[in-house]
Amino acid sequence: LLETFANQTALAIERARLADETERAQVQIETERMRNLLLSSVSHDLRTPLASITGAASGLIQHQAHLDAYSYELAQVAYEEAERLNRLVSNLLEMSRLESGNVQVVKEWQPLEEVVGTTRLRLEKPLRDHPLTIRLPENLPLVPIDGTLIEQVLVNLLENAAKYTPAQTAITLSAWPEGNGVVVEIADRGPGIPPGDEERIFDKFYRARPNTAGGVGLGLAICRTIVEAHGGRIWAANHPNGGAVFRFTLPIDGKPPQIPID
Ligand code: ADP
Predict the structure, then answer these.
(1) What crossing angle do the helices spanning 2-62 and 69-99 adopt, rounded to 10°?
(2) Which of 12, 41, 96, 200 is the most buried (most CB within 10 A)?
(3) Strands 171-178 and 234-238, how do they pair?
(4) Which among 175, 171, 173 is positioned nearest to 183, based on CA atoms?
(5) pTM surpassing 0.70?
């Protein structure tokens, strides 16, 4: 009889605990939903004024002849900061878009060089103070990727490499075939990731050193969502000689289409 009592009590406690957990999870999901909704609506509203500011500042820069040196410098600061804010807002919008499940990964066989090239053009200014070395071997196979999304991953990783490292320190982007796919690596010579934070930095809104310059902690979360949507994996580590190393894999399923030789 006593054993039955004990069993029943244990079951009741277990049920209460589970109900509690479910409620907590539901509150968390709802909070997340509200936060995403708020972020995406704020981001949408920020886009238009930001575009006007960027346009006005770039107009001023183009009329350099009519400006004194000080005004020109101010116009340049306004333009670069507006661009930075633009990238931040894009990340916010991208995250809510990716999370809503409305994003289709449209894979096409592409040479990685192409995506690296467009990324480099987009990051001309943020990478101005960092010598960038690109190492792509000639035998790199075509990869089935959504070019726009993988470009976003490279932009976020390279921008971080520039943002979190002292000026003039080198950044290297390399890729090589490995197993059934390609590995892409972005390495810098900055302070690296605080030990123990290598996993958490990929969480949404997590920032390892909150007081440093930068964004809101979404860049790497976006990278992870995109890489995983391609069936790959992304991780971070510190180089034994210093600096952070980010790697992601792009699996290759199937065979690229044959291009007829003319
Ligand atoms: P954000 O840059 O907006 O803070 P991210 O998700 O891109 O967000 O990065 C999360 C955190 O990871 C950053 O706040 C930073 O502390 C750390 N981090 C990212 N890249 C690097 C890097 N190359 N070197 C050192 N720390 C980095």
Answers:
(1) 150
(2) 96
(3) unpaired
(4) 175
(5) yes
Q: How confident is the model at residue 262 (pLDDT cuts 50, 70, 90)?
A: low
For 70-116, the pLDDT digits (tens) are 999 999 999 988 988 887 888 888 887 787 776 778 899 999 999 99
DSSP 190-208: SS-PPTT-TTGGGSTT--S
Closest ligand 1 atom to residue 202 Cα is 6
Q: Is 217 in the pocket of ligand 1 (CB under 6 A)?
A: yes
Nearest CA to 183 out of 135, 149, 238, 219 is that of: 135
Distance between the two ends of the chain, CA-based, in angstroms? 88
Residue in this structure with the two tokens 């289709």, named with its chain if needed: 104
The backbone torsions φ and ψ at residue 79, rounded to the nearest 5 degrees and listed phi first, read -65, -45
The residue nearest atom 13 of ligand 1, judged by CA position, is: 207
Give residue 100 CA to ligand 1 midpoint distance, Å.
Answer: 24
CA gap 262, 257 in Å, rounded: 15
- Ligand 1 in contact with 220 (CB < 6 A)? yes
- Are 182 and 256 in contact by the 8 Å Cβ rule? The answer is no
Q: Residue 72, SS3?
A: helix
- Rounded to the nearest angstrom, the distance between the alpha carbon of 210 and the centre of ligand 1 is 9
Q: Ligand 1: which residue has its CA nearest to atom 25?
A: 192
